[in-house]
Write a structure and sequence with these properties.
318 residues, 11 helices, alpha/beta, 8 strands, TIM Barrel
Length: 318
């Protein structure tokens, strides 16, 4: 990992690449933050970030509003994490509703701010819609966005009719991809992920996953196809058996019986039981046994639990 943080031409710090963090540590601890809804006070998010950073996270990521939700702020929050909290940060970037020209302009904005870590996503269809329709001239798949970022890293930019630029400075993004070990079609599960890495993705982060065996089998299948990129399992602290049932029904996540049995049946609103940390830590240990290079914790409303879990894991994986 870089010993000194460089400065961009415009004076912003140039972020440390997530690939460098992953290569420098035997096991990383990271967390994913959601921007506040439009119109809400962002200071609460800053307090949450401060708490998570203090618990010992190695890097963070900031989501982009999913399903057409109204959540701006991904870029400035990522920039704040990098400059104010001095932690590497992944900025989620969706190509939903964007043309290649829009994408290039927005990515250049990220680059000027010193953002170097991009999680390249297609984006969800608007809430309530099942069919995906790309914007006119836009992309239908995330691998096309990954391909464009890779080309920018090689100094290949879009041409404008009537203008010819003979010398261009390449960007320097580290490209991440979302992967789906529980995608219902086994063939698509593998092929959709494989093409992202062949087009330039350097690491992957899974959908929310609770079954270490499914994670391990997915990574094994990718490895057999020649894909050796690190894959971080995306995990969440479950507070009850009832919540595990919701994860199964709403998101299609398989939750192993051994994990469910160690959770309390229900949890009270606003109340958390520290005993739920034991099965979570065991889940992380089993992920590591299957070759996980770290864990990526989705931080939603359980801030205190996430802090406690991070501190426990930090003690185990120094």
């Amino acid at each position: 990992m870089k010993s000194e943080i460089a400065k961009s031409t415009l004076g912003y710090t140039v972020d440390i690449k997530i690939t460098d963090v992953l290569h420098s540590k035997p096991f990383t601890l990271s967390a994913e933050m959601i921007p506040p809804r439009n119109g809400m006070d962002p200071h609460k998010t800053m307090g949450t970030l401060s708490a998570i950073v203090d618990s010992g996270v190695d890097f963070l990521s900031v989501t982009k509003g999913a399903g057409g939700s109204l959540r701006g702020g991904s870029l400035p929050i990522a920039q704040t994490i990098k400059d104010h909290f001095t932690k590497p940060c992944i900025a989620h970037f969706t190509c939903r509703d964007l043309t290649p020209q829009d994408i290039e302009n927005l990515l250049v904005d990220h680059h000027y701010f010193g953002i170097r870590n991009i999680l390249a996503l297609r984006g969800d269809p608007p809430m309530g819609e099942t069919e995906w329709t790309p914007t006119e001239g836009g992309y239908s798949f995330a691998y096309e966005l990954i391909q464009q970022i890779r080309k920018m890293n090689q100094g290949e930019f879009l041409e404008r009719k009537g203008y010819k630029v003979t010398q261009r400075e390449p960007t320097d993004f580290s490209i991440g991809a979302a992967v789906y070990p529980e995608h219902p079609d086994p063939k698509e599960r593998l092929e959709f992920s494989k093409i992202k890495f062949l087009e330039g993705a350097e690491y992957g982060i899974t959908q929310m996953i609770f079954d270490p065996d499914i994670y391990g089998e997915f990574c094994h299948m990718l490895s057999k196809e020649g894909i050796k990129a690190p894959i971080l399992p995306g995990v969440r602290i479950l507070r009850s058996q009832a919540q595990a049932k919701i994860m199964k029904e709403r998101f299609g996540c398989q939750v192993p019986d051994w994990f469910i049995k160690k959770l309390p049946a229900e949890h009270g609103k606003g109340v958390f039981d520290e005993s739920v940390l034991e099965p979570f830590v065991e889940l992380v240990e089993r992920m590591q046994e299957h070759g996980a290079p770290g864990v990526h914790i989705f931080v939603l409303s359980d801030i205190e639990l996430c802090q406690m879990a991070m501190k426990i894991l930090k003690g185990k994986y120094k």
